[in-house]
## 1
Amino acid sequence: MTQRISKSKRFYMMNPIVQFFKFIWLSIKIMLVVAGGHGGTRKVNN
Amino acid sequence: MSKIVILGAGISGHVAASHLRRKLSKQHEVLVVSPNSNYQWIPSNIWVGIGRMKSEEILFPLAPLYKKKNIGYKQALVTTFHPEGNTESTKPYVNIKYVNGELKGKTEKVTYDYLINATGPKLAFDMTQGLNPGTNKAYSVCTYSHAEHAWHALNDLIQQMKQGKKAKILIGTGHAKSTCQGAAFEYILNVEQELRRHNVRDKAEVIWIANEYKLGDFGMDGMLLSYGNNIMKSSEMVEMVFEDRGIKWIIGAGVNKIEDGIAHYETLDGEYKSETYDFAMLIPAFSGHGFKAFDKNNTEITEKLFKGFMLVDADYTPKPYEEWSVQDWPETYQNPSYKNIFAPGIAFAPPHAISKPRVNKNGTAISPAPPRTGMPSGITAKLVADNIIDIINGKKDVHHKGSLGNMGAACIASAGYGMTKGSGVSITTYPIVPDYNKYPDTQGRQLGKTFGEIGLAGHWLKLALHYAFIYKAKMKPFWWLIPE
């Protein structure tokens, strides 16, 4: 096992308070990416 | 009045049926034909496979829901396609065979005006010699029953490790052309965390084996992503996680034979090697179901409908990797020969892979097939449903489009279960199929929309999605507000 994630980073990753806000941020960001629309490619680039 | 027949009740088939029923008046018939009696939320199979969820939590029976929502349902599998009807009638139909109840074994002709083929993939365990879930100490998490079986075996091994046994656990892909590396990635991280939870991590050697050329390829040619304030490759991110968890890896490996506790594989260097194990979870190759189609004179026309999976509006011209284009990928999932047949989700034949194809000196192709999992399956199913509704309402063309080259996807990979100890690797990618012309400097993807995050929030998010999508699938009040 090689420690590739620092202790401070691990604290940030697992702290419930920090992660609660991260959860809200992630939910919104993912919603924007996923529900942000989709379409064709042929007309756009042709 | 139109009759829409949907083959399959997985994510794609169920989404199409739900939207069609909600948006079409009752004079139109929506009929689902599926050999499965239950709907299952496949992304949570991972947690069944580590014993942290019961099967009952990720599935529900289809028949009562469909009865309540006025959706027809036949528990049967399709055997043949007849898109021109026969000599007696030009009405297209499929032949089905019942698989349960009093009608078991009986066949029936089911006519349709519109057909949605959402049969997904066949789990082709038979393409790897000796790979069969539950035999040779190798398991799968592709279905909830497979995942349950895997958990029983893993739990037995954990109990032995508590008595002092040293064990080797092998997780990854079980064929040179497998896809769904993401599911295996989730499973290996969850298994590793469970070993720690049971205080036996020091007794286990955990090894990743995959057909990827680089870690983090995921069948999508890898990706360049934003990670905090940095930009990193998905290979670097996965390597960081694996090293931190003490997981070893073997990549560029095409597993070709499984014996009792031994996986034989061929490498991209052309070498033949083997790895022993005490427990393995290996994702099989996916293939089409081998359906046959016939014209009105009963002459076989399978090549007009299928190329393994179903042919749709993609460009299937064989081309070298350098000439692959995002425009090759389908937009409407409509069969070019029969405009009333559609194949969303995993049922359509991809024009080619996404990852660069690689062949070793022995001529063996070892590279991932393209992944087409939950979220794109739902989106493509909904757009197919919307196009059919438009056609029924008099529109001549299909307006709703959703190429994987112009669609974002989220992969919330569980990295361990637990409200305070859990973790998840959240990755979004836009577009799914890289567009190297549009985004030449960022490996074909838009950086702001292609990002990765690791942490407890990822676990909460995956859990929230589990409950949200089961709520949606049960068609509870305002279910349609939850996006695909």
Note: The mean pLDDT of chain A is 85.
## 2
Amino acid sequence: MLESLPLLSLILFSPLIGVLILLFVPKHKRKPLQTIAILTTLIPLVLGAMLLLQFDGVNSSVQMEEELKWIQPLTYFNYHFAYQLGVDGISLPLILLTAFIATAAAFASVFIKKRWKLFFILLLLLETGIFGVFMARDLLLFFIFFEFTLVPMFFLIGIWGEKRRERAANYYLIYNGLGSAIMFIVFMMLIFTVGYDISTSSYTSSFDVIKSNALDPSVFKFDFEELKTWMFVLLLIAFGIKLPMFPFHTWVVKVHREAPPAVVMIHSGILLKMGAYGLIRFGYEIFPEQAVEWATVLAVIGVINFLYGALLALMQNELRSILAYSSISHMGIVLMGLAAGNALGMQGAVFQLISHGLISALLFLIVGSIAERTRTTALPELGGLAQRMPFLSGVFLFAGLASLGLPALSGFVAEFMSFAGLFEQMPVLAAIGSIGIVLAAVYMLRAVLAITFGNLHAQHQSLKDVRMMEAIPMVALTAVIIVLGVYPALLTSIVEQGMAFYVMVKGG
Amino acid sequence: MDTRLFAADLLDMLPELTLFIAIIIISLLDLFWPKNASKKGIGVLTLIALIVSAGFLIYQRIHLDGVISLLNDSYLVYHYGILFKLIVLLGVSLIVMMSFGAIRDKDIPHIGEYYVLLMPAALGAMIMASSADIITLFIGLELLSISSYILVALRKHHTKSNEAAFKYIVLGSIASAFILYGMSFLYGMGGSTNLFQIGATLQSLESSFHPMIYVSFFLLLVGFGFKLAAAPFHTWAPEVYSAAPTPVVSFLAVISKAAMLIFMFMFLPVYFVPLDPVQNLTIYSDVVLTLHVVAAISMIVGNIVALMQKNVKRLLAFSSIANAGYFLVVLSTDRPGELVYYLVAYLLMTIGIFAVVTALENSAEHQDISIFSGLYFTAPVTAVMTVILLLSLAGIPLTMGFLGKFFILLGVIQVKTYWLAAIMIVSSVISFYYYFRIIRLMFMRSHSEHTTIKVPVTTMIVIAICVVATIFFAFFPQYMLSFIEWT
């Protein structure tokens, strides 16, 4: 009976139940609002666990597929678009990550001090949008969800952020709007070059049709050969903006600095992953040859991202900025892993997506706790917090170590796999890149030490350690980071299933 | 070909005749209307006349079988014509409803005339949608234009408004003259006033006539561009939009535009014929390129200049200039289905947003964009609905505006005009900035201006209809698309 449930749709729309309930709760009652929000985020988490159990890691096809006809072809209007969902080994971990981090962010919303009702409604809408991005098996549907996430994020940054929040919200909107505009053009080009579905004799945006047409040499393709390099490069830019890829990273720094910590947890933890996910799904799956051709460029950009982010992180005197550049740096590892193009590197890249999602969510949870108590995140104004907040400082040290890639934590596994993959293909670039690992240790430890050790400032004498609401997500995130670090096969066995497509294409 | 008109043929003209009779009756009634009674009664009668006319149209649509042609194509009943007329009537009905709460005595001394004048304007637009004869088309255009000149000038005691109305009349007449001049070339070459015959004759013309064809096209284009408010013929729009009564502005932005679109939809096929395939001279490609260039200029100018506007009606004027660009794009791809879908989307979001503006400017007594400040705190429901309308205008998914732009873009990408698609999509992203600026004002600013905002019930109904339809047809576009193609 359980098998017949449309599990993906349930996960996708379950946050909306919370939205409906929240609409009828008085807006000044903070406690019930947050309780409802947390409980709502638990639904997809539980359903996600069921999804994981039902997932067949051996079967390399797309699973749990659901399809509903949406727009059907007419005489002149010769397109058909469908509501089509499915998961594979790449999207499943990201869906679980989304459910998990959304719950953590709902807990972390204790830091939100005003307009809770609207906040939680937007947070849940955002969650639905992100689920949709990772589940969609149709280009149009993917784009709809991808673009839709802009709206709740715009509000979340613009209303609850720091001083220059509205500027950051605009930056976010315009940069991502441009990125998705480029992506949209490529999608439409794909519809007309390889989107002709013979079974319905109409154009479609179905990912399966487009992929099989693009990869099948016997299918006639209009202009596909001439355009495919263009399309790949444009996709690289479009998703590069989201990723963020050097030089399109400035907006990420602004959002990290200005958005409220609970939102940055989602932004840095999940939203950035949509860029890498899109690159794998559409860039690598539809254009495997171009991915190989452009691997060196990708690797170079990856190395630049990694080193540039690390160097700039080293120069910051403000915790949020350090973490922002650290995010950029860590996304460089994803690019390097993807550039390697072998099974190890690709798995490392996806592993890094998950690992960085968890670690940066944890770090920003800590930022929220610190900022709420001290009202600052500038390093010179902080120090000695370990004396008053031993628990928080302990978790912070742990998160810092995880971020710099300490063995037995998830960050290490991801970095190791990505670098090992790249060494196999481009040893020189990998060697240059590995300098960044040292830099990461320096900037992370510098930040952690400056904040937790040293002299406690006079005005911070009366600080209290974390509350239950903050401790729960901290412990949960910590636990997952350790589990994945100690037993990475838990994740790699799933990711392997999703990588089958690529290894197959390259091998054949 | 039968060129006589029989009494039975009048039945085919019922939608127009209904309005025509209603204009006479209601304008006479207005004369004898009790001095101290509310003129809203006239508005209600107008609304009824519009709905009856729309009822006849729907009846006609259900029983339509092929094309009905009267008086040598002077009067045509055809598939897309009926759709356009329905759109016009829907738009005018919404505008009349919006006017109940927006048109006030102290601003407009002659409210009765206001409602009555909306009908000949609508009738003009309907005539434009039901003819293939250039004389009849021009009469429809002038009926629409002259009615809207008066409508724009209705704020008699408002200096700015009078100035704008005067400019509108002068420039509008010049545009009409350009159209008429362009038509005269067509008549000269085609030897007929019937567009189908002109089209057929143009195809067989010797190449020495080709410059004349270009001349007639460019003359017409100037006129079209003006009436459509497409850049670089748009300069009147911001001024007129900011000075005219807001319901009239929404009429100009939606109904005038829709009427011009059907007008161009009838005229452009005349030029869409490849001439002289031997010498490979195709006017078709030049015409399409010209349309693309004007469309590109409109989209760029509209969306960039809108960024700097402080007056909300001027801002919407530039938004409508940008939309004129999108319409020109879809006209050039000659895809009526997509044109109708986006036109309905545009109608709903534009009338909806103007309805919000009427309520706000009446409480604030000015038109600065700050009237939106803190709207979420004073009128949360209205604010959320405004957000949906703005998202539709910006082209964010889950709204009709998004799907409409998507369909237009598909048509452009299919004919491989990538540069135009790029301009269209990038200028849409630029437009995010000013649409979201209004959203920012509503949600992220305090309400310094006014403490309470009264949105009249009728205005609220108009906004709600627009919002619900915008979302409904975004989730279920199939209903509208199949209705458009239903034969």
Note: The CA atoms of residues 161 and 460 of chain A lie 23 Å apart.
## 3
Amino acid sequence: MAPDALQGIVRQQTNAARWNGAGWPDFVAALCAAGVEVAESAATRGIFATDAGGTAYGLPHGVVVARSAAQVAGLLQAAQAHRVPVTVRGGGLTTEGESVAYGGVLLDMTGMSRVLAIDADALTVRTEAGIYWHGLAEELRRAGLDYLSAPLNMTSSVGGTLGVGGIDVNSARLGCSADQAISLQVVTPTGEIVECSDSENAELFQRVILGYGQFGVITEATLKIRPYTPLSMHYYYYSTLRSAIEDLQMLDANDASDYSGILTIMDCAVNLLVAFDSSEREAAFKANWEQRLRGHGEFGFALCMAGHYALRPWKAGEALYLLKRKQAVFPEFRRPEFHRDGRMEDRTVVFSRAVWKHWGSRNMVIPDLATSADKFIDAVERGNAVCRKFFPHYTLYCVGIKLRPEHKPHYEMSCVPPDAEGWAYGCEFEPMIEDAVYSRDHFQSFKNAIYDIGVDLGASYYRFGGMMKGYIRRVFGDALVDKHLAMKRRADPAMILNRDVIF
Amino acid sequence: MYSTAHPRDYPACSGCSLCRLVCPMWRSHRDPRFSPEGLAKARQNGAAVTELADVLDACVLCGACDPVCPENIDLGGMIMDLRRDVPARPEQAALQTGYRKAAAAPDAAPAGALLLPGAALRADAGLLARVLELLGIGCATDDGADIALALEIGGAIDPGRRRSFLDMLGGRTLVVGDGLLLRELRHWLPGARLQGLGEALGNLGAIRRRIASADFYVVEARAYHADHERLVAHYDALRKESGCSMNLDLQRIAIPGCDEAEASWMLKGRRPARILVESPAEREVFRCVAGVPVLHLAELAAPNEEMHNA
């Protein structure tokens, strides 16, 4: 194990060191001469002081709003020459500071957020990569089309998602969101504008997809799309994680649904959601699989819960919390303006609204574990015990990810665990912060306790960068990390691009 | 879940960027400074209001940011407050003075429900007459146009003037043509029966029946967002009933037809047979960019028809 293997493993937050600013004025002068605006006011830099997690803080020396691939190329060439760190940001939906700049320049990709061309016959879209998935959906829907898969959060950007993976409730069927990328326009760390795909500049494509921004800036993407369909959604309720996960994996293995996932209120109310794009698929599920599920309907589960807590009066507080949470959250998933004829029209809007309203807060820590199918129940149960230890209230979110054998090179040193075959499974462990105040060390200890499970199980993580990058060598091993580090050094001689994320 | 304990002003902004998704100012500039989040963060980082003048000027006060903010910050109110600290342009100040003088000695308001048409509708006498006939209510000669403009430009509102205006309105059912004034009247006259012009006309059977599935219906953003929770249901019912498409995005937030760029983006990928607008100002914008008939809602029904049907 390398000497730096334990960096960041101590039970305290491990912010990256701030860049010292050497060469900044010359860098800015070079950009200004090229007609690139570098915003240096505190007001502009302050917009990017933290990410969605709200626990990592850092200010860039300046901000550049991306406008074109040529502009980004010029920026990266100047950054190489002046050895100025460049932190690239899309929606900023990281939680470990991966999109926070500790000095240097912050490149805001949302300036490149236009849909360039929709091909309804070939079912593809070409878009600038700084676009929010929500913005892409907005234009696709006018043509009766939709993207395949994207995080259930409206402020995720296309480029950011392709760089890390992206999980949707249809990932067990369609794979991670990055799998829908057909080709990309990438600006390399040395400023070349390159088109890449599985057949053209394949090595760059493999490194950029799920590459955590180390090997280039994605400026445009061609994505597969599909005809839009509203969803028919069903919910089944369980009182144990194990039975719900077993049923989730049974459905995934048998291709029994179009959408599946688990969302919980602690480990007390475990909701398996199952949804369908078509009446035919729904009917087949009802005929062949529904009776095999061990979950209850809402009324049946309420009766079970009433019985459970009647026998355990000392748990009245927990019962009251469940009831309050149900009353707050359930109507959000059933708002009539997002449904028509019993079908959900805008799943990302419905889920994202609910997430921001009922799960979001100023501080969010969401450690996760990604494992092979057979290790998943163990991982979730152990992670659940950690949640119980650290927080009174929390949520678990579990989904499967269909793996594409031909994409195996994309998955190297990524959130996809190396031993997964067929499906990988991911679980996010999210404490409900509510009005409570926790120290950073409390959050960090919680994350470490979850990540230690991953090391023990030989798993991977979705959020292994930023403040958690100390785990990278522990989970991937020196040989693989050194291989990628050598590739990074070749591609990015001054090590300027997103340098605090992985290496 | 966000805390309910902290203040609901710009210090509460956590930078989630949800307001950017719906902001026409951001869509136009694609620059984080040009968004409510950008303004809130700038203030949090000590920016003086004068440094933000360009951004404040670019905001169209459509109110789209208010219903989507998970912190429940009154972002529209924040921007209107900040505008008060930026000197108004001379022509705007002169216009406000003109409206103020016109309202100085109003005729006695007719009894019963009143229409406050607002400057844009009042400027089109034919359309105003048609609206009044359809709604069957009286028209206020003092419709608070000076107050509405002051709200828009950050001008001062004399407390005495505001009091006399509100006294004149007290206890009536009001249909308000200016969305920004409607927003404030909801605060100033809690419990009053208030409707926007679009909602009032859309409730008339003679108009509702004529909205077709091939139409593109443009909801007036300010009035809609000022009462979003309730009006979402109103417009959702209208959409389901008529089958028309609307300028509501996937979050059911209204995209304002504030300029030709926004109107063009709204129509991108759409081929409506007609465009129906609630706001006379938006009618003019769409006429510049759309190659199809653009009608105000009141132009859908023949004069007297609603009264004959009643």
Note: The longest strand of chain B covers residues 173-176.
